[in-house]
Amino acid sequence: DLWLSDHPYNTRSILQLADCDQFPGRIRGFTPMEANPVIKFPCGIGVAAHHGHGGLSAILPLGPPRLLPRCRERADTGQLVPVPGPVELGAEYFERPNMRLGDGLQAKYSRGGDLQWLSRRRDGQLDGLCLRFEPEGFLRYSECGVYSRGKLVEKWQTSLLPDGFLALALSEFVLPVKRALSLGLSTCEARLCREEQVDLGGIRPM
Question: Pairing relation of β-strands 38-40 and 45-49?
């Protein structure tokens, strides 16, 4: 087995693993209007954990951190009104940095740790391939497609998947993060790595 890990893929300790001294320069915060906490690493990639659960929610590119004001001035009346935030977080949402989703690939996971989505985003919107996976690693064709500026422009056909796309996405985006955190592979990821002949022994941590 070329993929040795200290933690199972469905661990509920993502924040403890990512928010530690092993990763100097990391930033803990949130993304806009989301309760899931995120850790951004100096390379610009981050991980999100399911709120109230702790399992891996996403691997995603994150923009610059900024603190949000708790109030804003209405342009029409000049009145100060509260800035909305996730109700379940309360004041914590404003006490930690907020980071917008960056451009590029994003991997999303179920609460059970299974890879569910692999998509490309631009300016916060789906833009390019959007792949939906079953826990066993098969594509759920009815939910896959090609998007442009958030709109579906082409329903799924196998010919839409470029040769080597999955191998590249796994080996250069998903797996280096999992290697750094010493996380195991889900059934879906392990199957895709076998089918795409990904060199697991050559994966370096991010």
Answer: antiparallel
pTM score, two decimals?
0.94
pLDDT at residue number 1:
58
Q: Is the pLDDT of residue 159 over 90?
A: no
Task: Please list, in sequence order, all residues whose beta carbon lies within 8 angstroms of the beta carbon of residue 170, skipping any fewer than 6 positions away.
Answer: 189, 192, 193, 196, 198
Largest CA distance in the chain: 65
Pair 115, 83: CB distance under 8 Å: no
